[in-house]
Design goal:
The complex is a heterodimer of chains A (about 300) and B (about 120). Chain A is of the alpha+beta class. Chain A has 6 helices and 23 strands. With about 120 residues, chain B is mainly α. Chain B is built from 5 helices and no strands. Classes of the chains: A alpha+beta (about 300), B mainly alpha (about 120). Chains A and B meet through α1 and α5 of A and α4 and α5 of B.
């Protein structure tokens, strides 16, 4: 009798652990967006409606590209590989003329928990010129998630300083403390994309406080920043190899400062870091520095031509 | 003495496992992983202390429940803490995150309560 109850206790405990880990890592659950509001990417919020707005003359660019640049009428993109802090760093500058090219893509086109797909597959599916891994929100399923002008998730993460990154329809970027303003209001203020990872590296031209244990380690990194409205800058660093150990958060922030960014935000890094440019992954994604290959993630941020 | 060495080795094993896991987690740490050994450490000390004051003659069925609660605390608190560590270090989340640890702590509370009742009735 004693033995049986002991065995039952052990079975119950192990099952509880298994259920917890299964739910955290394996159980795929698709979810629906919150509400019906959708923000038009090319309708900036008019803060002073009495003043007439001047429509800029449309500039027609021919779609041209080579190994390090791409240009069409909606965006101009350049790619550069530099050495910074003993690591290989890829810098992508994107000048956007139509916010609709900035597209968030979900793994398997499904928003949900534990649904994942390689960044390159997502980029290929939508025909992106540039794509980077996003915030991997499907892994923890918390945060403020707005994609393509639609609110998907508004469950603040637990740390008191968890900030989400906002990409506005007026071409600017900012951060917000999750939970400080309801997601619907954030959406209505003209936010077209939001990502929940962090930390904020640079804000208003000043480097953020980056002192955590995680921040002090050199790692592969993916981050995005802003040079000026509609002019984005992406930094992806290779890491975990002797040739390129990666960047600390401080070094990543310093890189953005050196490149002239006024705002920068860290996205998911480590084994998730992936940079797609013109039909191929250009960085060296790795989890442990020995095996190379992309990790399946829950989302990507892409710059996708509107005319295929 | 022999059982004390065994217990110390067990606590040391969990502490070492937590330290190794944290070492390979690329700078991401979790209090629940690093200090998962605390639960068994507390458990062994509590049991040794309580057993010193408990009456010798207790009904077998009561003793069985008493031991079961202690064991439930030890297993669930430790496994729960390690699970929280694994999940938070990986950056994931689940609604079940704290449930197993809670089961362990409830078992501990019941174990302590039963110990008090046993002590009270023996006097």
């Amino acid at each position: 009798m004693k033995k049986i109850s002991l065995i039952l206790l052990v079975i119950f405990s192990v099952m509880l652990t298994s259920v917890t880990l299964y739910d955290a890592f394996l159980l795929e659950v698709s979810e629906q967006p919150i509400g019906e509001n959708v923000i038009d990417p090319n309708q900036p919020i008019d803060e002073n409606p009495e003043e007439p707005t001047i429509e800029p003359e449309p500039v027609v660019y021919e779609a041209i590209s080579n190994d390090s640049m791409y240009q069409d009428q909606d965006m101009t993109i350049t790619l550069e590989k530099i050495r910074k802090f003993d690591s290989d760093v890829y810098v992508v500058r994107v000048q956007v003329r139509n916010m609709a090219v900035v597209q968030g893509v979900f793994a398997k086109d499904t928003f949900g928990k534990n649904i994942s797909e390689a960044t390159s597959k997502m980029a290929k599916r939508v025909g992106a010129v540039v794509a980077i891994n996003g915030d991997f929100h499907g892994y923890r399923f918390r945060g403020l998630i707005i994609r393509n002008g639609r609110l998907y998730l508004d469950t603040p993460r637990s740390a008191p300083d968890d900030h989400a990154m906002l990409m506005h329809t007026n071409g600017t970027m900012s951060s917000i403390l999750e939970g400080s303003i309801p997601g619907e209001e954030v959406l209505k203020s003209g936010v077209y994309q939001s990502f929940s990872f962090g930390p904020v590296l640079v804000e208003e031209g000043v480097m953020g406080s980056l002192e955590s244990n995680f921040a002090r380690k050199k790692n592969p990194r993916t981050a995005i920043g802003l040079l000026e409205p509609f002019h984005y800058i992406i930094v992806v660093a290779d890491g975990r190899t002797s040739q390129s150990p990666g960047l600390t958060m401080q070094e990543l922030a310093q890189t953005f400062m050196d490149l002239g960014a006024t705002f920068a935000y860290n996205l998911d890094g480590g084994g998730s870091s992936a940079l797609w440019f013109q039909n191929k992954i250009v960085n060296k994604p790795t989890f442990d520095g020995t095996r190379f290959g992309e990790r399946a993630v829950s989302d990507a941020l892409t710059f996708t031509p509107l005319q295929p | 003495m022999k059982s004390m060495i065994k217990q110390a080795l067990f606590v040391g094993f969990i502490a070492l496992a937590g330290a190794i896991y944290t070492y390979f987690s690329h700078g991401v740490t979790s209090f629940f992983m690093s200090y998962a050994f605390i639960w068994v450490f507390i458990g062994f000390i509590l049991k040794a202390l309580i057993n010193r004051f408990l009456p010798r003659r207790i009904k077998k069925s009561i003793q069985h429940i008493h031991n079961g609660l202690w064991l439930s605390y030890m297993i669930n608190a430790t496994l729960g803490s390690i699970s929280i560590g694994i999940i938070t270090i990986a950056g994931s989340y689940t609604n079940f995150l704290y449930i197993q640890l809670m089961v362990g702590l409830v078992s501990l509370a019941m174990y302590l309560l039963l110990s008090l009742v046993l002590l009270w009735t023996s006097h």
